[in-house]
Amino acid sequence: MLNPIWVGRFEVTAPRGNAYLGDYTQAFLWIAARAEDAPTLHANVNAALKKLDLTVVRSEDVEPARHEDKYSHEVRKLLHEAKRTVDTVLCGKAHGFEPAGQRPPTVLQLKTDRLILRPWHRKDRDPFALMNADREVMHYFVGPMTRKQSDEAVDRYLAAFDRDGFSFLVAEMRDTKAFAGVIGLQMMHDIIPNLAQPAFEIGWRLNRAHQGRGLATEGARAIIKLAFEQFYLDEVVAITATANTASRRVMEKLGMTHRAEFDFIHPRMPAQHLYARHTLYQLTNPRPHQPVDLFKGPKANYF
Hints:
Blueprint (H helix, E strand, L loop, with lengths): L4 E9 L12 E9 L3 H13 L4 E10 L8 H10 L7 E2 L3 E3 L12 E2 L3 E4 L6 H8 L14 H18 L3 E6 L5 E9 L12 E7 L8 H15 L5 E7 L3 H9 L3 E2 L5 E2 L11 E8 L19
Antiparallel strand pairs: 1-2, 1-3, 2-4, 2-5, 6-7, 7-8, 8-9, 9-10, 11-14, 12-14, 13-14
Helix pairs in contact: 3-4
């Protein structure tokens, strides 16, 4: 009889420049493996990470994985792969951090020809709030956001990074370093009738100075590549107010398919609102999921 699958979150350290942590000296990793008990799991994890020049500092939430539905999507994928192997230690994506909030909450960063899509810094809250207070930018939303609502949105993004390993990133211009807006990926908060769950949504919001230049399409292409090639999602969706032709053009440029049968009234907008009716576009991952074993070969990749 096979040993049960154990899962836990392990805090690790490494010299700066480590191949797996990059510019971080600390990180946490979700790890799953078959083991007789928690001490055996710890021993297996310590041995596997040592080969990667990583040192375990502490662990938390180490337990037999009996109720998979309580874990995030990424951890559930990890558990799925652990069921297919017996002796391998499987490790989820690294979430970088350093003490006292001196570093952003994730190592995730993408570059395009004109943009850097990066983690949040404290300084980003001000331009984000200005963008969210702009009536033109927020035309297809319920209305402009207050500063409190804007900061709460940032807090939700940061919480999603910690839970899922992805969320909305700051879109920064590569040449001027100017704040252009946000572009990213998130697990959908709202249930759309008849749409399979969990569903993963790509989205964008750019300030007025950076609209109409193709930046949303450029950044969203990088997010789709991330979703399909790093997180192995089967598909992504995008939603917008049915009347928002600009966003719909972006979705079409991305090769997404309009799924009119999923049109819905947005649950967080008043039903009588002019733009309450939303429509959905969908894009399927053209490549099948390929399992990744982090500890085989010198160039293993994170989920």
